[in-house]
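User: Second chain of the day. Same drill as before.
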Amino acid sequence: MTMDQVVEMLTSPLMQRALLAAVLVGAAAPVVGTFLVQRRMALMGDGIGHVALTGVALGWLVGSWANLVPQDALAVPGAVVAAVIGSVVIELVRERGRTSGDLALALMFYGGIAGGVLLMKVAGAPTRTSSATCSARSRPSRRPTCGGPPGSPPSCSASGSGCGPRCSP
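Assistant: Same format as last time:
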């Protein structure tokens, strides 16, 4: 990469905003991370991400009901609102309940994913096939793989999921 390319890249408003965001996140993340590790809530960011999926789906649903163009115009605001509400709820459960932070996080993880998937289905989002189907649909040159946890028997359909040879045990 030449110096002219670097200068051209840094003069782009998009790259300037991206660099500013990276510097701000780089300054704030260690402080927040240290705080969460001290409180034994290191997975809080992952849990909030799961709840944010529910907010994205809710924003998409509201946007489609309100006939907004594009329909996902409220997806990011919905994710932010859901993440803040999820954080407050997790703290209330942890403080007032007789549960540990880990249990409250687990509830947030699975509740966030379930809520997001449910709302996306209600909104009419395209659905994907389950993990039991062949994962080689987009790569026919590869041998298909079966879904299911490691060590368990294969869970492919009798037709081999329509993407090549049947999965073998």
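The radius of gyration is 22 Å.

User: Great, on to the next one.
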